[in-house]
Amino acid sequence: MKPEQFPPDIQPHLIPWPSGRLIYRCLSCAAEFDIQKLLYTCPKCGQVLLLHDTHFEQLKEIPAAQWRRIFDYRRMLTLPALKGIYRYHEFIGPNIPLDAVVYLGEGHTPVVEANRGLQRDVGLRFYYKNDGQNPSASFKDRGMASALSYINHLIKSGKVSNVLAVCASTGDTSAAAALYASYLRPDIQSAVLLPHKKVTPQQLSQPLGSGAKVYEIPGVFDDCMKVVEALSEQYEVALLNSKNAWRVLGQESYSYEIAQEFEYDVADKVVVVPIGNAGNITAVMSGFLKFHQIGLITALPKIIGVQSSHADPVYQYYRETDRDRRKFVPQNVRASVAQAAMIGNPVSMPRVIQLVEQYNARAGCQRVHFVQVAEQEIMDWQLQANRNGHIACTHGGECLAGLKRAVEMGLADKTETAIIDSTAHALKFAGFQDLYFSDRFPAEFEVAPQPALMNAPIYIHPSDLAQVPAPGRPLSGEAFDSFVQAVSRDIALDLKLVKKKE
């Protein structure tokens, strides 16, 4: 649909122009810095940064009801730059010209309601938001679209050139970073660091396929993160982990999409996300806060952050109910099927602490909660979800297990509706399903398969057949008819099929 075909009062707002004034703001000392230079930590105190629009309050000049109409009408535009996360341009990257926006199909992922049986088992109505249907098959594409669009803007403006983008990863970040960087070749090259043999083969194949330099090092993600931090401090590289505030900004789109999907009525909604490096839950809180501040939503939804007992530093921090006695303690993580959440020292923890306080204060009550689940629960609920029509990854299983735990703890109930995050595609973690079905999980995972959830192929080769087909050796005539009849018979016996009446 062309802009001139829209209502006259909407037309001036459909195609956004660069606006706002973004700055980096330190969470600790509140120092502010210009965005013309890529920064990841505060030059004064070393703390992490968030991006702040000093002109944000000007968005209130447009009434909230009008903003809703603008976003709803933008759904009908065919302009690529506004098809993805930049539908919410004024809230995500108001300073970025549309010709610098990198759009690879990210954002606006499906929200799929669970069937009645699964909702009954969990105890309330809920939906999966399938972020595994992003281009690189994970939610990380939201942040990469933002970070690489901004770098593209700097390149087009002549402020940077020959960029080397680096990141540490448990798999999904590297896939997204390599994909988006490859789109901007030759201006950007990418290099990724992975913990040796701690990434699934499917995830490893992605940055390799995108042409990135892939380095595997001993240790876990936290060790990789320290190395890329050292690289970004000592060399001219662009860091693409969630320490990069542009990443967090792009991931706020997840909140905006949920609000729009549910007609901006989120008062009775419960949003469940895994924590990992804490960039995602940071972005989710920040996004809902912005929409609430402008009035697009009139209440803040509950947010449930989920962690495995094998990597739960954020959960442990909030177990202490006395805020003055809380102390963050990094952890040595143990093996987890939710590999992206296997992080003992999340870089966005300072952001989480600040935003949780802001979120609860603005809501007037506690609206952010944290729960812990076992590895066994993660695998069992992932398989249960996928047996009921979903494509949940292990982190989607972690979220479903977390929702069940929240219901048991009274943090959510049947009067509410939950939206839970499947952060990646199930196929990325098919290896864990294979381990479950074949009962080959290493002991350190603490996962024992439940017989009712196990599955395996059944080889049908009737013993009374003299000949069977093979590649390059097809059967024909009577031999082939005998093969079809014998195999059909054995399958029907196994399935207990009833013959049609004559």
| Biggest sheet descriptor | 6 strands, mixed
Strand order of the largest sheet: 4-5-13-10-11-12
Average pLDDT confidence is: 95
* Count of the separate structural domains: 3
* Rg value: 25 Å
Count of individual helical segments: 17
How would you describe the shape? globular
By CATH, the topology of the largest domain is Rossmann fold
Return the CATH class of the largest domain. Answer: Alpha Beta
Order of helices and strands: HEEEHHEHEHEHEHEHEHHEHEHHEHHEHH
**Which class do the helix and strand fractions yield?**
alpha/beta
Number of strands: 13
Q: What percentage of the residues does DSSP assign to strands (E)?
A: 5-15%
Fill in the keyword field for this structure.
502 residues, alpha/beta, Rossmann fold, 3 domains, six-stranded mixed sheet, four-stranded parallel sheet, 17 helices, 37% helix, 14% strand, globular
Structure, described:
This protein has 17 helices and 13 strands. The chain has 502 residues and is of the alpha/beta class. It has three domains: 111-135 and 252-453, Rossmann fold, CATH 3.40.50; 140-249, Rossmann fold, CATH 3.40.50; 459-502, no CATH class. The strands form three sheets. A six-stranded mixed beta sheet has the order 4-5-13-10-11-12, with helices on both faces. It has a four-stranded parallel beta sheet with strand order 8-7-6-9, with helices on both faces. Strands 2-1-3 form a three-stranded antiparallel beta sheet. Helix 5 (140-156) packs parallel to helix 6 (172-183), helix 11 packs parallel to helix 13 and helix 14 crosses helix 15 (394-408). It is globular.
